[in-house]
Each structure stands twice: as structure tokens, then as C-alpha cells.
Amino acid sequence: MSTPPLEAAINAHPFFIGIAPRYRRLLYECAVETSFDAGTYIFHAGEPASQFYLLSSGKVALEISAAPRGPLLIDTLESGEVLGWSWLFSPYIWHFDARALLPTHAIEIDGTFLRMQAKQDHLFGYELMTRFTQILIERLQVTRMQLLDIYNPQG
After folding, report:
1. Which of 15, 33, 62, 127 has its CB surrounded by the most CB atoms within 10 Å?
2. What is the pLDDT of residues 15-54, one digit of tens each?
3. Per-residue 3-state assignment (H helix, E strand, C coil) for the chain
């Protein structure tokens, strides 16, 4: 019996490699495929955050609004990366804008559903927190480097 394409895509995504099969089943329950045209905003800072995305193809910019300069690029994400962690931490709002730079295909995961599951199964919650904390650390380091570039007196 072959694996359905959505399940195969989740199984192959680097972010969930090594996760227990019982947790994979939870991911399958709350996942849908989605796509975004180049230039489309996926979300804006301040909007409610209830999902995250496993990027399958394309390229996404993480930006902050910096009037009057316009958007400042914080990071770019590509295939194999995860977009969105704000669904996991109160007050559950996006902290950046995300914009597709290229046509982008992703798997959208219902974070609200996963939060409820994590409250019932603390080992699952720990698994999610461990994985998403790595994303937070990576984004913090990238943001730190961007700030060094912005405020570098030789720049």
C-alpha cells in the first residue's frame, strides 16, 4: 500500500525527521497543501497566528515594516524550512510579515489543533517545543546579524 502524497511530503520534510509515528499521525490530521503566488503576503505582523508552513518549494521573505524606509528583509526561507512559530506562543500573533518571493508550495499545519494535542500529551508538547525552539534560535541569530549590518558604522 502506497503512502498518500501529503503524508509522504510530511515524512520527507527535514523538520519532522525522527518524530514518533503516533505524532506523525497528528500532523496528517491537521495538514493541507497550499501554494502562494510570487508577491503574495502569507501573513502580516499583528495578525492572529494559528498555523505554520512546511516549505516544499519556492522562497519566502521574512520582513519587518520600517516606515518610512519600507519593509526590511530579516531572512529568506526556502524548501525544507519551516515558516511560522508564533502560533505556539501567546498571544498567538505574527511577529513578522511573510511574503512569497517566488511561487511557493507548502504544507499548512493547524497549530491550534497541535497546541490542544500538546496540552493533552506533554511528551508531544516537549517534542514540538524542542523543534520550534531551534527555529527561534536560528531566527534570533539571523536577526542579530541583520542588526549588525544595519548599525555597522563602516556599512
Report:
1. 62
2. 999 999 999 999 999 999 999 999 999 999 999 999 999 9
3. CCCCHHHHHHHHCHHHCCCCHHHHHHHHHCEEEEEECCCCEEECCCCECCEEEEEEECEEEEEEEECCCEEEEEEEEECCCEECCHHHCCCCECCCEEEECCCEEEEEEEHHHHHHHHHHCHHHHHHHHHHHHHHHHHHHHHHHHHHHHHHCCCC
